[in-house]
Amino acid sequence: MPMPTKGYEYLEHTADAKFRAYGITLEEAFQNAAVAMFNVMINTDTISDEVSEKIELTSADLDGLVVDWLSELLYLFEVEQVVFGKFKIDGITEKDGKYSLLANVFGEPLDLTRHKFDTEVKAVTYNSLKVEKITDGWVVQVVVDT
Questions:
Q1: What's the predicted TM-score (pTM) here?
Q2: What is the pLDDT at residue 13?
């Protein structure tokens, strides 16, 4: 399966949004998954990076880590009212059978006069979830509830 040039692609799915995010590294695939999720809602190309948040997560496995990662971003969006457009994962590590992620995310305060929303993402699901090593990198497949 060749990687798309964009870093992610949308897949056909009824009622929800389904996408695959790709990366040469696992970190890049997770970053592209975040971009894909936010692009379901809003054009991330228009978002500045005036606000930054540090994120540290630990999960039992990679599937849980990707769900926790995207869910944390959705939580920050809903609670802090910040839209994100840039995601920098400093590392994903495995220790004692658990996976940890350290990241910085960048965005700006939500402004409904400027930010035009397409679809609201309500939750990240485990439906069709996949984190997989492929020949030339990694693929992360996610379904979000819209």
A1: 0.90
A2: 62
